[in-house]
Amino acid sequence: MLMVLPLEGVVVSFKAVLAYIFVPQVRVAHGITTYASDVSEVVRELLDTHRENRRLKQEIEMNQLLVSQAQKVFEENERLTDALQLSANHRWNGVWAKVAYREPTQWNIVTIDKGAHDGITERSAVISVEQGKEGLAGVVVEVMDRTAKVLLLRDEDFSAAVYLEHGKEGGLLVGDGPRPVRIKYIPLEAKVNEGDNVYTSSSSSVFPEGILVGTVSKVLQDDSFKTALVVQVEPAVRPSSVKEVFVIADEENK
Question: Global pTM?
Answer without folding.
Answer: 0.64
